[in-house]
Structures are given as C-alpha cells and as structure tokens.
Hints:
By secondary structure, this protein is of the alpha+beta class. The protein contains one helix and seven strands, in the order βββββββα. The protein has one helix at about 105-130, and strands spanning about 20-25, 30-35, 45-55, 55-70, 75-80, 90, 95-100. It has a seven-stranded mixed beta sheet with strand order 5-1-2-3-4-7-6. A hairpin with a 4-residue loop joins strand 1 and strand 2 (about 30-35). The longest helix has 28 residues, at about 105-130. The radius of gyration is 19 Å and the shape is extended. It starts with 18 loop residues before the first strand and ends in a 14-residue tail after the last helix.
Amino acid sequence: MSDKFLPGTASLLEEIDKKLMVLLRDGRTLIGYLRSIDQFANLVLHRTIERIHVGNKFADMNRGIFIIRGENVVLCGEVSDENNDGTDEYSTGHHESLTRVDVEEILELQQADFLAKQDKDKVRLKAVQESGLSINYDTLIDDF
C-alpha cells in the first residue's frame, strides 16, 4: 500500500489546485480548478466552465466560482490540457469527434432535444394508459 494513500475525501487533498472534471447527478459536466474541499466532499471549483453536449456537438459556458455539494458528485477526475489543442474538435477516444459550437447554438440544440424527449414521454404515457395500466406519479423516481 502506498504511503500517499488517503482514505475517503482526504484523497482529494492531492487534487487541490488541479483542473478537474466533475459529473453531477443531474447530468451536468463541470470543469474547473479545485480550490477547496471539506469532510463531506463538498467542492469549490474556480474558473469553472459547464460543458454541454448534444449529439456530437459541445459548447462551454463560463460559470466562475462553483460550489458543489458532495452528494451531487457522480464522477470526479483530473483533466489534462494536453488534448485541448485550441481547435474546435476533440476526440472522444472512440471513432467520432465532437465539434465545438457557440453557446447559443448548443442551447437551441439542448432545448430541441428536451422537447423531443418530452414528446417521446407523452407517447409512452399514452401507450401505457391505452394498455389499461395506471401510473402513480408519487412513486416515480427522477432520472437523476
């Protein structure tokens, strides 16, 4: 066992002042510099951007200082600037590339994607109701 191993949230101490990517329970992706943590794994990110993906396109929105409650963190890891060469594309590691678009375009795409999902959910609900089943909305669990 390494002498540098720290259990629990204390292991994040080694990540202070490093650039991290944090995936939140609600699906958002944040990238920023870790400035502080506490015993509950609450994080403070500085110079934070929110990276929004829709299909094979993405955009970054500046968010500044971001305080994240530890229970909302799904994934957290160091990000290297080596892959970010300033171009408008980056590889996902698979056989596709993502293309950078402006914020207005990604927000429009995100809204269209949301509306399409809503329409799909309405069709599903109608099919469930037509099959004679009922849904108790109090027991539905959020996707996140």
